[in-house]
Design brief:
By secondary structure, the chain is mainly α. The chain is built from 9 helices and 4 strands, in the order ββαααααββαααα. 53% of the residues lie in helices and 7% in strands. A hairpin with a 2-residue loop joins β1 and β2. α1 (25-45) runs antiparallel to α2 (51-67).
Length: 209
């Protein structure tokens, strides 16, 4: 009784850190730091010369840190996006060096093991969630208050913004969703959609800026 309540500029909900402006910059910095720390711990603990074993550990212990609820947070600038990419850049470089494997670049390291960038994987997860929302596989209250079908016979899942633009999941990712719909012009189950969207080249999903 009588104790003052200390104000906080950020809080965690379901392990997602959000500030009082509903921004996720602190969360992105936190998970990038945590992923880099786990990467160092794995490299310090194990001394294998088999890169596949290291990448399996990355997929198990590090990747989930970067991808958990990635539909909620969206890097607001290139600096934050690079921070999310940094753990995989660091980890692959150290693994290749330890295993005495030649490489030319980050892209080359990934291609040698058919790996995707963190951005590419995050984009696929966002699209799969978007698909489940528009086919009512996921419950999203009042979807029609945000987007409406464009009634295109060639692309049945093409949508347009309904009313005023809001910086929400459905609006923020609408242009990317419609771009993908033009490449996938028929209705698919979630499993079939995931397979088809995974085969779309990265430069179509994420056009160069």
């Amino acid at each position: 009784m009588g104790s003052p309540i200390t104000p906080h500029r950020s809080f965690k909900d379901l392990d997602i850190l959000v500030d009082d402006q509903l921004q996720f910059d602190k969360h992105i910095n936190l998970i990038a730091y945590s992923a880099k720390l786990k990467s160092r711990q794995i490299l310090k603990t194990f001394q294998w010369k088999n890169p596949c074993l290291y990448f399996r550990l990355y997929d198990t212990y590090i990747r989930p840190v970067l991808e958990y609820c990635c539909e909620l947070f969206d890097p607001s600038n290139a600096t934050l996006a690079n921070k999310l990419e940094s753990p995989l850049r660091f980890f692959t470089r150290k693994v290749f060096q330890r295993c005495n494997m030649a490489f030319n670049s980050y892209t080359d390291r990934l291609s040698q093991f058919s790996m995707l960038t963190t951005l590419h994987r995050r984009t696929l997860l966002v699209l799969r969630t978007y698909h489940k929302i528009v086919i009512n596989s996921y419950h999203f209250p009042s979807v029609s208050s945000y987007i409406l079908p464009s009634h295109s016979n060639r692309a049945p899942y093409l949508f347009k913004i309904n009313g005023q633009y809001f910086d929400c999941f459905l609006h923020r990712n609408l242009s990317m969703w419609n771009r993908v719909c033009k490449a996938i012009n028929f209705k698919l189950s979630p499993v079939a959609f995931a397979k088809r969207v995974g085969a779309i080249p990265c430069d179509i999903l994420i056009p160069p800026t």
